[in-house]
Amino acid sequence: MDLFQLEMKVNGEAVSVPVNPGLRLLDVLRDVLHLSGTKEGCGEGECGACSVIIDGELVDSCLVLAPQAHNREIITIEGISADGELDTLQSAFLEAGAVQCGYCTPGMILAAKVLLSKNPKPGRQDIARGIAGNLCRCTGYAKIIKAVELAAAGLQQKEGEAGV
Amino acid sequence: MSETSIVGKTVLRVDGPAKVRGESRYGADIDIPGALFLKVLRSEVPHGLVKRIDAAEALKIPGVVRVFTHADVPGENSYGIIVKDQPALTDKVRFRGDALALVAAETDVAAKRALEVIKVEIEELPPLYDVWAAMDEKAPEIHAKGNILTVSRVKKGDVDAALETAAVVVSRRYTTQRVEHCYIETEAGVAYMDDDTLVIKAGTQNPHYDRRDVSRVLGLPINRVRIVQSATGGGFGGKLDISVQCFLGLAALKLGRPVRIVYDRRESIIATGKRHPFFVEYTSAATKEGKLLAVKAKIVGDTGAYASYGPATLNRAAVHATGPYEVLNVDIKALCVYTNNPFSGAMRGFGTPQMAFVAESQMDLLAQALQLSPLEIRRRNVLRPGSLTATGQRLDKSVGIGATLEAAWEKACQVMPGLGGEAR
Ligand code: FES
Ligand code: FES
After folding, report:
1. Domain stop point among A31, A54, A79
2. Does residue B324 carry a pLDDT above 80?
3. Residue of A nearest to B183 (CA)
4. DSSP secondary structure string for all residues of B314-369
5. SS3 string of B200-223?
6. pTM over 0.90
7. Which CATH class is domain B132-179+274-417?
8. How many angstroms separate the most distant Cα atoms in chain B?
9. Which of A25, B125, B144, B154 is most buried (CB neighbours < 10 A)?
10. Which of A25, A27, A29, A40 is the pocket-test mutation for ligand 1 (most atoms within 8 Å of CB)?
11. Residues A114 and A154 in one domain
């Protein structure tokens, strides 16, 4: 099979790799680029464990063929704690006890990230809707919603301090 | 009370930072260069004898290294937490999903293709899908010792006499359904030989039990088997059983190469344990003041093809059959029964949630019959310090159910205005 030269930006870095065009973006991230923070839970768009951000939108990477990611900008869980510092959302998940087994966590955090980028002051219903595509079997969601509220408040405060 | 460093305080989980960064390594995340991919061929029929497995075509596929069957299992081909009744690779099929053959290949694709061309001849036996059929004397035996695996009893007082004197008696039949744990991480892991020690890294809730069963199945001394629990993406009881461990161990040991396996969601659902479906006949009796006099119950749990934690689940069901209530006369019988369904094992509560549904439904029916409120009948029967349980244990320390009921009622009145207005 002819290989496809996949070019994309992943977590801010330009990537160019020859891949089997039948691979899913999920496989490219995990098996080719060794970014195993993106998980597979169902392989059919039900669970959201494989969520990544493509050009600012939350997408199930198990439903994206590698060539569809060509020339796109991808952010995975590894890309949001740049310079080793935890992102506000990551700290909020820890503080609120929103992480149990942690398997849904990368996708959940990215879902929350996209939500907050579009709606910095979400109500509980907005948060529930924002994470509706991400299943968590451990927490019962209450603490995840709490974590997103905490993060939203934290981000507001940061902006206030920065005088924005 | 003396100050402690942990109790009563919020502590951040040690594995938290790695998990929010996506750095935790679950079974499918472990880097293991050069590892072969493993895939399992599973039975499409529920009950039968394996007559022949022909892997000749599969072995011709480029990249396919080896196909294992029951004949390749070096040790005792049976594992299980309580009863050693489950083969790693079977020569008798007991449910649709039983493992028949294990393929090791250089690529995932080659392993999958191999599964499609392995020929299996099975002499089918009549399948038993329900516990009543399985308990019939003439039913074919799923395991050599018969289809009723265990019988648990809890007896106290004289139920029949109590039924005579009761003001109200309620009898009903209840059934509960099979439930899949559906942890978001499917079963996965890797294995390799470290000198002459077999190392298996996999998602599991039970590394010590895994070690014993792997050593038994592979015929290896236990000190040559090491099980390392990888970060585990949920279990809820479902990862207490062996899943991928014996496959990984068998292939790594026989081939001397690192191996890896990942179940997809379909295989995870087909091949692993479930919550036991229960079939319950339940009679409760009370005085006209609403005091429980007697409970009589027959509980049948469908443990499917293998015991797993079935005996413990049915034992727990018997012990908790009366709910959090004091009952003077008790007669409970709980049977753990094999069928040709997916096997049932541990799942959050071990049979107690099923019985809670039954016992609480009965309390509501008694309340109705006696024209009491559901709250009031429970108030009159909850276990308190000093109560005797169904098994005769005196609860001499704290018992929280009474206070919990009152707190729940108070909260309900707050959030549902008008509720407290009725005469309760
Ligand atoms: S793995 Fe993509 S949605 Fe479940
Ligand atoms: S923390 Fe386990 S699935 Fe969400």
Report:
1. A79
2. yes
3. A137
4. HHHHHHTTTTTB--SEEEEEEEEEE-SSPPB---TTTTHHHHHHHHHHHHHHHHHH
5. EEECCCCHHHHHHHHHHHHCCCHH
6. yes
7. alpha beta
8. 79
9. A25
10. A40
11. yes
Name the CA dihedral angle for B325, B326, B328, B329, rounded to a multiple of 10 degrees: 20
Q: Average pLDDT for residues A142-159, to the nearest whole number?
A: 94
Q: B9, B21, B269, B347: which to substitute to probe chain A, counting the most A Cβ within 10 Å?
A: B21
Rounded to the nearest integer, the mean pLDDT of chain B is 96
The domain containing residue A53 runs over which residues? 4-79
CB contact under 8 A, B20 and A94: yes
Instruction: Name the token pair of B165.
Output: 């004197």
Chain A residues touching B185 at Cβ < 8 A? 39, 41, 49, 101, 103
Nearest one of B340, B357, B346 to B275, comparing CA atoms: B346
Report the distance separating Cα A84 and Cα A135, nearest Å. 27
Q: Do B13 and A99 touch (CB under 8 A)?
A: yes
Q: Is there a single domain that holds both residue A67 and residue A30?
A: yes
Fold agreement between B16-124+185-270 and B132-179+274-417: no
**Same domain, residue pair A75 and A93:** no
Phi, psi (rounded to 5 degrees) for B353: -60, -40
Q: Which of A50, A79, A108 is the last residue of a domain?
A: A79
Q: Is A27 in the pocket of ligand 1 (CB under 6 A)?
A: no
Q: What residue spans define the domains of chain B?
A: 16-124+185-270, 132-179+274-417
- Decide: A66 in ligand 1 pocket, CB within 6 A: no
A106 and A49, same structural domain? no
Q: Is B29 helix (H, G, I), strand (E, B) or coil?
A: helix
Domain B16-124+185-270 sits in CATH at: 3.90.1170.50
CATH code of A152's domain:
1.10.150.120
Domain count, chain A: 2
Q: In B, which residues are within 8 Å of A36 by CB distance?
A: 22, 25, 28-29
- pLDDT band for position A22 (cuts 50, 70, 90): very high
